[in-house]
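The passage that follows is intended for readers who have already worked through the single-chain material. We present the inputs for a multi-component assembly, then the predicted structure in tokenized form, and finally a short commentary. You are encouraged to pause after the input and sketch how you expect the pieces to fit together before reading on.
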Amino acid sequence: MRNFSYQNPTKLIFGKNTIAELANEIPQNAKVLLTYGGGSIKSNGVYDAAKKALGSRVVFEFGGIEPNPRYETCMKTLSIIKKEGIDFLLAVGGGSVLDGTKFIALAAKYQGEDPWDFMCGKASSPSEALPLASVLTLPATGSESNANFVISRDSTQEKFGGWSPLIYPKFSILDPETTYSLPVKQTANGIVDTFVHTMEQYLTFPEYAPLQDRWAESILVTLIEQGPLIIENPNDYNVRATLMWTATMALNGLISRGVPEDWTTHGIGHELTAFYGIDHGQSLAVVMPALWKNQFEKKKAKLAQYGNRVWGILSNKPGQEGKDDIANLAIEKTEEFFESLGVPTKLSGYGIAAAEAAEKISKRFEARGLTSERGLGENACIGPKEIREILCPKTL
Ligand code: NZQ
Ligand code: ZN
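Having made your guess, compare it with the prediction:
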């Protein structure tokens, strides 16, 4: 097991009717900016519950943060924050609202000219941020309990991730009842996103970390078991609650401690979203199985472990051949699982021409200086050539 440090300062408040806790958690004299998305919180009662709990506090509002939150939109908040002396941000919504608000928290304190500079690596991240908290309405990203955020820029079709210890939410409220109103597609995307986050901290090569492996496997088994249940019965509280807690656990920084990681699927997936606008979860469902096929030799030992422990695939052939069978079957099972949730695993399922996407995206990584020797993945060997093959295997 590798050396690591672990600190997660976010307080989590979980369960029914917990939005009322805002009354106790936000300082009474705070000047709050409540941020939200396209309006789901207004039709499912979450907005009303939050406003009620905020009581007599001074609250300003900013709506319209879109899925894959845009830099251009988030920047509009800075003038309100300055003019009104806002000193607390409350994000109410899905991962996009939370991520957009994390960016705003940093941008509001940024001393340089353009906050995009710290997104694209031209400048270092600000040394101060506004405090923020969240009411989560979509289990998927783990943003409620981590220090990551991902921002898209319309004008350049770019999507970049950032990280800063300053933007861990002070607290996050997780009321599973807020997720009853999710469209099936978003519930399914959230399950895929959670699944892939877990995999990116697990599906590399064997490292002596049996507890971390078992944690990851328990998350995967839980998703495989609970996913179909929620599609059948979207108003089952216990299943909703399980999915919400599972998504938080998958990306709160715990399961990756001491083990190798491979975030290639997210890296390529962000480009698919930036160029073609497909949902985050959809992009991952396409890339991850294709990545595994491309990197089969390097990943097959862990794929076999996954197939065996998570899917219960037992080979009757002894030795390495048998293991390859398990590994191959594990990839097939994963594709079937995503497809069963209604999330296609091929670019054609989204009307995207694979050859064109492969060309555009591999060129972009090439321009950023990626090579097969200094590339993505646990072995840093995924460069533009491999990315082209992953997105369009037939061009091999
Ligand atoms: O905008 P509203 O009207 O709220 O509608 C949203 C949106 O249309 C809707 N929705 C959310 N909660 C709802 C609801 N509709 C009905 N009832 C509810 N309770 O769902 C749609 C999608 O919302 P969004 O926030 O975009 O989804 P998600 O939570 O999947 O977030 C995706 C974003 O998070 C980033 C992704 O790249 C993407 O930009 N990620 C952030 C991460 C992080 N911070 O750690 C890690 C992830 O890997 C991911 O990259
Ligand atoms: Zn994700």
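Commentary: The radius of gyration is 21 Å. DSSP finds 16 helices and eight strands in the chain. How closely did your sketch match?
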